[in-house]
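Backbone-to-sequence.
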């Protein structure tokens, strides 16, 4: 089969060639693909957000998209389904690095890192700053998938109470309590830290309302490493401006990138990173491990593929 990677895999691609010599692997950027490349391609390895319906219509032999990202909300899922193309994603490859970022955000806030850094810049020396502890704090994860489950294990090591929220309120390992999405206000009311890790689907867009932040309370830390569309930005900005919640750490935004004059930049109770918590030096290898497992399973057994995306649900 002809396999084209839009992802720059470097030595990993050479390893794939050696591991599967019966297949032809090539590395070509999406924008550089010719009509012949598209027409002859059987498998596409990509995370290029420019893949659209028009592109897929030029790929008559495409059987499988190995998507090297978790979220598939920007892909033309209806066309992929119509053309009977297999879609797998990289769900699970982010759990280590995003979990580490979650706790780096928490520690930055709870241990007053920014305040101490400013003190250092001012050549000051103060010992009267008091810090919060994670010990016996309650952390609530909106979502109970692989990332929050991994992060929940870390939280347990800090002797935190761990609450999860999922569609059905189904119990999950490492969570002390799990609530349904409709019961989330009860979960928020008893939580010190709330972390959104939901993907973007029709049911998660604009999920969080004013009353959700009111339930979190004025001492709450809100972290978003899922998708920015979970809350309209005017609602989030108002919650921060009016001190409905105390602080926020945001890696994702409703529209990316943020414009230079975006009102979030004017707030002093928010830390922002540019949608990078999922990145890691190990990322491509972990995503390729999933691809290799599925290559060994074989397209004829696609129903046994790892990380097979449900095209109707969008995840």
């Amino acid at each position: 089969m002809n396999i084209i990677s839009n992802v720059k895999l470097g030595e990993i691609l050479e390893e794939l060639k050696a591991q599967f010599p019966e297949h032809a692997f090539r590395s070509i950027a999406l924008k550089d693909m010719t009509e012949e490349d598209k027409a002859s391609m059987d498998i596409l390895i990509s995370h290029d957000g420019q893949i659209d319906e028009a592109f897929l219509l030029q790929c008559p032999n495409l059987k499988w998209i190995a998507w090297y990202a978790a979220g598939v909300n920007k892909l033309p899922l209806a066309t992929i389904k119509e053309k009977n193309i297999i879609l797998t994603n990289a769900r699970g490859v982010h759990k280590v690095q995003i979990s580490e970022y979650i706790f780096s955000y928490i520690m930055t806030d709870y241990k007053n890192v920014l305040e101490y850094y400013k003190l250092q810049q001012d050549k000051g020396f103060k010992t009267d700053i008091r810090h919060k502890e994670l010990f016996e704090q309650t952390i609530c994860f909106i979502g109970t998938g692989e990332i929050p489950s991994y992060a929940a294990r870390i939280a347990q090591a800090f002797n935190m109470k761990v609450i999860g929220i999922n569609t059905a309120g189904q119990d999950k390992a490492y969570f002390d309590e799990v609530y349904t999405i409709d019961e989330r206000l009860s979960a928020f009311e008893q939580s010190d830290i709330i972390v959104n890790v939901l993907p973007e689907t029709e049911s998660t867009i604009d999920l969080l309302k004013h009353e959700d932040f009111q339930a979190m309370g004025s001492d709450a830390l809100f972290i978003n490493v899922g998708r920015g569309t979970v809350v309209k930005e005017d609602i989030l900005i108002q919650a921060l401006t009016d001190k409905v919640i105390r602080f926020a750490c945001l890696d994702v935004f409703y529209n990316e990138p943020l414009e230079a004059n975006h009102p979030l930049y004017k707030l002093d109770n928010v830390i922002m990173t540019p949608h990078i918590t999922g990145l890691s030096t190990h990322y491509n290898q972990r995503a390729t491990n999933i691809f290799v497992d599925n290559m060994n399973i074989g397209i004829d057994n696609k129903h046994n593929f790892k990380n097979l995306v449900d095209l109707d649900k969008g995840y």
